[in-house]
Amino acid sequence: MKKVLLFKSVSEDYVKAFSEHNYQTVFIEPLQFVYVNLQELSEKLQNLHYQGLILTSPRAIESVSKCWAPSKFVTWNTKRIYTVGESSARKVKLLLGLEALGSRTGNAENLAKLILQENSSPSNFLFPCGKLSSELLPTMLQSGGIIVDALTVYETKEIENLRLDLMRVNENEEVCCMVFFSPSGCEYVQRQLQTFSNKLAHLPHFAIGNSTAHKIENLGLEIAGVAAKPKAENVLESVEHYFRTL
């Protein structure tokens, strides 16, 4: 049974999808998050001039939930909430009680196209995001006449035991490939892999989406595959396709 190393927190969706196709999953979480500017976010959520809210990461949704009070933010029930994947849409429903649009878009570029298609210019959107988030979505929207108010609500840091976790997996597990789930996670992992002799650095590298794939390439590494959508079954398809065509 092949083992796949996934750089994310343990996920039952991934365990299930991969085990059904005879793969074992090994998880390493490379990131830790610090929430910032929550007071400012709370004030902006009470501002009535936004037509909608864009939430492109689980952490952005969690940051909103930390200052969320349905009675205080009842106006958002009538506004457009956009997100980029089905699991994020479920999270919006669970934590905020709101229905999200765009769950099938799969990436920032497709989401931007949908927002431009569904909203007239000038519309004003609040975009809580991470400190290292890609400029692709706001740039596309602004060039189409949509005003984007981006607010950094979380910062990403390298998790403390990353090097030890990588050394443990290198020593004890025979993994066939690695899957990366964020540009920053990829950067932290690659930096640590340069600090000790290992076989992990030479394995095929897969990405959850385009921005992570670009980061891998910018680090001078080859991409073995990119998931068509940010879902477990699409990541699995990408891995299977690579090993089938070897």
Automatic annotation (TrEMBL):
Keywords: Heme biosynthesis, Lyase, Porphyrin biosynthesis. One of its GO terms (cellular component) is cytosol. The keyword Lyase applies. The keyword Cell membrane does not apply. It is an enzyme of class 4 (lyase). It catalyses: hydroxymethylbilane = uroporphyrinogen III + H2O. Its EC number is 4.2.1.75. Pathway: Porphyrin-containing compound metabolism; protoporphyrin-IX biosynthesis; coproporphyrinogen-III from 5-aminolevulinate: step 3/4. Residues 13-235 form the Tetrapyrrole biosynthesis uroporphyrinogen III synthase domain. GO terms for biological process: heme B biosynthetic process; protoporphyrinogen IX biosynthetic process; uroporphyrinogen III biosynthetic process. It holds the Pfam family HEM4. InterPro entries: 4pyrrol_syn_uPrphyn_synt_sf (IPR036108), 4pyrrol_synth_uPrphyn_synth (IPR003754), UROS/Hem4 (IPR039793). Signal peptide: none annotated. Belongs to the uroporphyrinogen-III synthase family. This is Uroporphyrinogen-III synthase. It comes from Papilio xuthus (Asian swallowtail butterfly).
